[in-house]
């Protein structure tokens, strides 16, 4: 067991060495006591089997604390943040979580997501058209493709007017900046008061959006969730508001990072990129392998021990915080042979990039569609796509919540 290790887990440089750090921790024990940047000691779980057990056990591990260790207090949140994220589906346990997820999934069905595929492909094609129209064929793939693709998809899915899409991106970034493990800061020059004013505007915008979809439903997801019914129940306005906020926050950054990470991984493994160009039928497998190799979600939502438990021989006291490190689990050699090698032909690949259990990422099917279409379109339309800088110069976004390259200059 590692006790209160002072490990750099937040800086951009730590993203480069994170897998080695996790491997060192896992070599000592699948569970380690680590001090977070907030000063709080938490249990970090780096073993695959142990992560699976924790993520699927809602008896011993809760998403909300039943009791906190002595001297530990949960921080108070501003009212606007509570309206958006407090008691959202990602932070509640069954059976209430089960009820809300059932209602959402009755609208956000596999058929609904698959029906979006042609639209996702068309958006990707249009973005490539813009790239090919550039007089100088060198751009940042993150800003010019990985960001606008999910932003446009999400806006259309939720029925957001095109004029409001940039604002939605700002609001998502601001909410993420409130997460102490994200290391994402508000845009330069914004004071805390300005940040909260923007978030309050987001609350007002979503309240108006929900009311409009209730009154005049369309074929978008918000309308579908507003009218969805299961066992005679519907989502309340407050639940619907939180769900839209969760989709916006979770659906933009994660897919952006999936696309950026995907091409960074392929550029650093040119043999795998060449294989994909020869065998485009491997695209779906390649997306799964990148999700395992450089997943965009680094850690799970925190869990709290509901009772005294033992994990991998280590006692954990009731109320203590436990974090499943998804990125570490997906590099566990006990589960994945040669885990530090990118292999787009890998078939036994039940990774944890989207989590596991009842809280598995709701948007996983859509992220997969976006990743698959992005990869297929870029490989087909830009056969000369290549990095425009030495890949050692590419930096990662700081923080522990999400993993993603900050920018990826490419030539084509």
Q: Your description of this structure?
A:
By secondary structure, this protein is of the alpha+beta class. The chain has a single domain, classed as Cytochrome p450 (Orthogonal Bundle), CATH 1.10.630.10. 48% of the residues lie in helices and 8% in strands. The protein contains 16 helices and ten strands. The strands form three sheets. The protein has a five-stranded mixed β-sheet with strand order 1-2-8-5-3. Strands 4-10-9 form a three-stranded antiparallel β-sheet. The protein has a two-stranded antiparallel sheet with strand order 6-7. Strand 6 and strand 7 (314-316) form a beta hairpin. Helix 6 (117-132) packs antiparallel against helix 8 and helix 12 packs across helix 14 (283-293). The radius of gyration is 21 Å and the shape is globular. The model has no long low-confidence stretch (mean pLDDT 89).
What descriptive keywords fit this protein?
412 residues, alpha+beta, Cytochrome p450, 5-stranded mixed β-sheet, 3-stranded antiparallel β-sheet, iron, monooxygenase activity, oxidoreductase activity, acting on paired donors, with incorporation or reduction of molecular oxygen, Cyt_P450_sf
Main pleated-sheet profile: 5 strands, mixed
Average pLDDT rating: 89
Task: State the helical fraction.
Answer: 40-55%
CATH superfamily: Cytochrome P450
Radius of gyration: 21 Å
CATH class (first level) name: Mainly Alpha
Overall geometry comes to: globular
Give the count of structural domains.
1
Under the CATH scheme, the architecture is Orthogonal Bundle
**Strand content bin:** 5-15%
How many strands?
A: 10
Distance between the termini: 49 Å
CATH topology: Cytochrome p450
State the strand order across the main sheet.
1-2-8-5-3
Count of helical segments? 16
SSE string: HEEHEHHHHEHHHHHHHHEEEEHHEE
Low-confidence residue ranges: none
Which class best fits the helix and strand makeup?
Answer: alpha+beta
